[in-house]
Amino acid sequence: MKTKKKVAPERLNIAGIKDRPGWTDAAIRKFLGEPDELRANPIFKTAAPQKLWDTSKIKAVEDAPEFQDWKAKSLRRSKSAQQVADRKRAKARRWAENVPIHLRCPSELSRVEDLAIHAYNERLRERQERYDKFYDFLPASKDANRELLSRITVNFLRHDCTEYDSRLEDTFGVVGRVEASRIVRRRVYDVISGRFPDLAGECRRQMRYRGLSD
After folding, report:
1. Does residue 87 lie in a domain region?
2. For residue 73, is it within any domain?
3. Are residue 100 and residue 165 in the same domain, yes or no?
4. pLDDT tier at 214 (50, 70, 90 boundaries)?
5. Cα–Cα distance between 214 and 133 in angstroms, integer?
6. Do residues 167 and 132 make contact, with C-beta atoms less than 8 angstroms apart?
7. What range defines the domain where residue 146 resides?
8. pTM of the predicted protein model
9. Which residues pair with 142 in a beta bridge?
10. Do the domain assignments include residue 47?
């Protein structure tokens, strides 16, 4: 059975034009001008009408020397911008790999657990006061199960005893922020595990939960 040859549409919308090499919003405005047709949005009836341009006009523009020159310059600009972004990402990665991570806390795990329990209960008490009867909680204690104690202790060490939060804030708005923040998070967990081997299992669990495991 012969397959039917796909017929190119007579008119393209903005998305269809931008799928073609060299086209951007600026290029559409510069070379195509006003649309040849305004058509009701096929998905959202209350949305603005679709702008459509004749395919023949688009092809004619693409063959013109002026557009070819524009496209070549656009590609060079895009490549240059990509190179700048790559350098910024590399810089952010180096920063994340080398920024100091200090763990300021007592050396005895038992004492750290006491502080973590106190901080945990204070936070929950504040929530209870804020939401009154709509929020209830069971205070943590040394009699709590080991899973809970490890979790609140690791969280306490991350947020209260390292530069965890401030280091993550340092990455805000930085090109390469996602990778840099992942590196910082992993390094914080590694520092905690190195100081308190008994918490290594909980650190690994949290890393898996946050998608930080290799």
Report:
1. no
2. no
3. yes
4. low
5. 43
6. no
7. 92-209
8. 0.65
9. none
10. yes
